[in-house]
Design goal:
Shape: globular
Radius of gyration: 28 Å
Number of strands: 0
GO cellular component, one term: membrane
Subcellular location: Membrane
Order of helices and strands: HHHHHHHHHH
Number of domains: 2
InterPro entries: Aph-1
Strand content: under 5%
Structural class: mainly alpha
Organism: Caenorhabditis nigoni
Helix content: over 70%
Number of helices: 10
Membrane topology: Multi-pass membrane protein
Largest sheet: none
Length: 315
């Protein structure tokens, strides 16, 4: 039963990531490379944050808040470093790609036009590896044996009233989904600042919003230990919607178009539009395979009355 729970938690946690990967990344080898490179940059930021925590723990008695702030700042700096790396790659590709010709790496050589899509790809890579590190220890414990929290309860003689209990797997699943989508939104916002910095007086606003929202979401997560699960997830979901709406504005959309898209998504979900489209496509393919091939250009009538004539029609 524990293995089934663990597998179910993994599937639920990374279903949105798999959908985004299949829709925007899987068909392009270059985007797959950038996806894993984003994961690598996040791992490097985690390593630097761990070293900073190790150094601070020898100086300060309580390093939680300081280490948390350092970790968030390092993660945002890793996004900036990733953008600078792709900018360098763009300059190199422009030297070997003539104007008006097809790029040797579509979607990378023209960073000005593809930066939002690349931000989604790279941010998804960061979000997936972040959610994986966040959940894998807990999910491994779910696999068994035993019940989470039981040894501590036996030692102390009482059960913590703030613990999630049987809803703990659900809390981890929701946290993983939110964390993945947050990283996508934060990457789009930070990269927009990196692209516009020095040219627009308000270029710093998206990057500052990403850092502030990152700090706020991390602070809310720390309240889970006090039992405010419903409040924390509700506020985090609201912040995520605001970040996505802001990213939509950054990419040229409007709030009205965002609200319309959300409404249409709910309609499509309730009417099972994706499933219906998939079934219709399968039917069309089946009909095309079963279609009768074109008849040869010959007359099917009986033999001609006139001798020496042929039933074949000259093309």
């Amino acid at each position: 039963m524990g293995i089934v729970l663990t597998v179910s938690c993994y599937i639920a946690s990374f279903s949105p990531s798999i959908a985004l990967f299949y829709s925007f990344i899987a068909h392009d080898p270059v985007r797959i490379i950038l996806f894993f490179l984003g994961s690598f940059f996040w791992l490097v930021s985690l390593l630097i944050s761990s070293l900073a925590w190790l150094g601070l723990s020898t100086v300060l008695p309580n390093t939680f808040l300081v280490s948390l702030g350092v970790c968030i700042v390092v993660q945002e700096l890793s996004r900036v470093a990733y953008f600078m790396l792709l900018k360098k790659a763009q300059k190199g590709l422009n030297k070997i790609t003539r104007h008006g010709q097809i790029s040797v790496a579509p979607g990378v050589s023209d960073l000005h036009n593809a930066r939002h899509m690349l931000a989604l790809v790279c941010g998804l890579g960061m979000g997936v590896i972040s959610a994986l590190f966040y959940t894998m220890n807990a999910f491994a414990t779910f696999a068994g044996p035993g019940t989470i929290g039981l040894p501590m309860a036996l030692e102390t003689g009482h059960i913590d009233s703030n613990r999630a209990g049987k809803y703990l797997p659900l809390c981890y699943v929701l946290s993983a989904i939110l964390l993945t989508l947050f990283h996508v939104a934060w990457t789009i916002m930070v990269w927009d600042t990196c692209h516009k910095i020095g040219r627009f007086p308000t270029a710093f606003v998206p990057g500052a919003a990403a850092v502030v929202s990152h700090l706020f979401v991390a602070f809310l997560s720390s309240l889970n230990s006090r039992g405010f699960y419903i409040l924390v997830f509700s506020v985090q979901f609201l912040v995520l919607l605001i970040c996505i709406a802001y990213c939509n504005v950054i990419m040229g959309g409007t709030i009205q178009s965002f609200v319309t898209a959300i409404g249409q998504s709910f309609v499509d979900a309730f009417t099972l539009k994706q499933i219906r489209n998939f079934v219709e496509e399968r039917k069309m393919r089946t009909q095309q395979r079963q279609a009768v091939p074109d008849e040869p250009m010959t007359e099917r009538g009986g033999a001609s009355d006139e001798p020496g004539t042929s039933n074949t029609v000259d093309a």
